[in-house]
Amino acid sequence: MHLLKHAIVVAVSSNYVSKVVGLASLSLASIVIDETIGLIKRYFWQNYVTELEVSNSDKCYHWLLQWISKYNEHLLHFSVTTVCRNTESGHATSKFDYEPSSGEHMFKYKGHTIRVKRDRSSMISSEYGSRPYETLNLSTWGRNRQVLNEILEEARLYAMSVMELGTTLMVPSYDTWHNFGEPRIPRSLSSVILDEGVIENILKDIHDFVDDQSWYLERGIPYRRGYLLYGPPGCGKTSMIMALAGEIKYNLCVLSLNDSKMSDDQLVQLMGEVPSKSFVLLEDIDAMFANRDGKTVIEGSTKVTLSGLLNALDGVVSSEGRILFMTTNYVDRLDSALIRSGRVDYKQYIGTCSDHQLSQMFIRFRPEGTTDDKSRFVKDVRKYSKPVVPSHLQEFFLLHRHKELNYVFEHINDLWQNVQDIQLTE
Ligand SMILES: Nc1ncnc2c1ncn2[C@@H]1O[C@H](COP(=O)(O)OP(=O)(O)OP(=O)(O)O)[C@@H](O)[C@H]1O
User: Ranges for the BCS1 N-terminal domain (predicted)?
Assistant: First the structure.
């Protein structure tokens, strides 16, 4: 007993134990300080900070990112998304979209400091596959919902005004649609030269459809319309769709089923998410389904099946009011199920140049020509008894745009240079 007492006295008086006790009190103190700071922060956060959280499943998520990038052109931390698509001419194009990077950003808005926190750490899985789950937190000091509401409204108005500048192309991004570049100046209807009545009739049909929603609803008919444009390449199918979209101020959702990442389920989801006032465009639909068993697709490495596409086109989630355009060079290769009425309500052949188109294209490219020149041009072209593709005619006029008219007449044969015989699929 005496020995134990002695040991304790020695230990307490030694340096070692006093250091241990000192360290323990220090760490206890730091825990208490941390907790207190945390409590104070939480108190201030709950009472003196206004916060808005938006997830990337909501439309305004991209509006906000777009607006923040525009409003803060000097933002130092940004991320880039590269969007690619094939153009009307078959060439691939791509562009960069800049947005605030993940992490924290600060900016001033009407005298208020706004903190933006973009979090893109996790993936969420749904029946349509997994996609990144992102959130955007906007916060500001004070009880100030108004300022965040104003930002949201400005972002909305900015997105709307951008869309109204022209036709916005949209391409799929996971199970939703993503803008592809800035809106394009709409192509005028008069720049697409087709046979008389072709554009006018289709435009009237679209107007009738858009104005007749209640007619469809009253009769229980799905409120959708499908158009099929078919004919040889380069005759103006895509140009007409772009011009129609511009004319009625619609956007264009371009769907490529050859995308190897696209699945049947994703397609269903995309069809259900088509933004209002948008055409859906499925180009070269014949190339997508080389195998007609409806299960496998040979061209490209797509996972989309014909039955999957049919489901997506008339499934219950398919957007009401959807206007679908499909184009093909080979209408006879299409599965009849794909183009039955209800899926395709309006078919239009867009072929090689008629006399009317030849003369209209002549006037468009050579406005200095007289009425006689116009008739001579048509007559001279017809002497060759070969079909003329409008895109070749456009190239021909571009090639000889600085030449005299006489030179043009003497070189009409150039129209068919390097051009294989066109197969007519009327
Ligand atoms: N009828 C037309 N009027 C004016 N320009 C035309 C016409 N047809 C084609 N063009 C011009 O030719 C080019 C190709 O046209 P477009 O892509 O619209 O043809 P397409 O029929 O959709 O071809 P594809 O079947 O290969 O997709 C465009 O630059 C367009 O300006």
Answer: 19-192
Question: What is the rounded CA–CA span in Å between residue 221 and residue 212?
Answer: 11
Residues ≥6 apart with Cβ < 8 Å to 180: 83, 85, 95, 168, 169, 170, 171, 254
105 near 98, Cβ under 8 Å? Answer: no
Please answer whether residues 347 and 228 qualify as being in contact, where contact means their C-beta atoms are separated by less than 8 angstroms: yes
**CA 236 / ligand 1 centre spacing (Å):** 3
Ligand 1: list residues with CB < 6 Å: 88, 192-194, 233-239, 327, 329, 390-391, 394
- Nearest-atom number in ligand 1 for the CA of 89 is 17
pTM over 0.95: no
Query: What is the C-alpha to C-alpha distance for residues 360 and 354, in angstroms, rounded to an integer?
Result: 10
User: pLDDT tens digits for the chain (426 residues)?
Assistant: 555 566 555 555 567 777 787 888 888 888 889 888 888 877 777 778 898 998 887 878 888 888 888 877 666 666 666 655 555 444 556 666 667 778 888 888 888 889 989 887 776 666 555 667 888 899 998 888 899 999 999 998 888 887 777 788 888 877 778 878 777 788 889 999 999 999 999 999 999 999 999 998 898 888 999 999 999 999 999 999 999 999 998 989 998 877 767 788 888 888 888 888 899 999 888 876 655 444 445 445 567 888 888 888 887 655 678 899 999 998 988 888 888 888 899 999 999 999 999 999 999 999 999 999 999 999 999 999 999 999 999 999 999 999 999 999 999 999 988 554 444 443
What's the CA gap between 270 and 273, in Å, rounded? 5
- Would you say 199 and 240 are in contact if contact means Cβ atoms under 8 Å apart? yes
Ligand 1 centre from 160 Cα, in Å?
29
Q: Which ligand 1 atom sits nearest the alpha carbon of residue 391?
A: 12
d(Cα 17, Cα 11) in Å, to the nearest integer? 7
Query: How many A from CA of 243 to the centre of ligand 1?
Result: 11
ipTM: 0.98
User: Could you tell me which of 343, 252, 341, 278 has the C-alpha nearest to residue 306?
Assistant: 343
Q: Which residues contact 211 (CB under 8 A, 6 or more apart)?
A: none
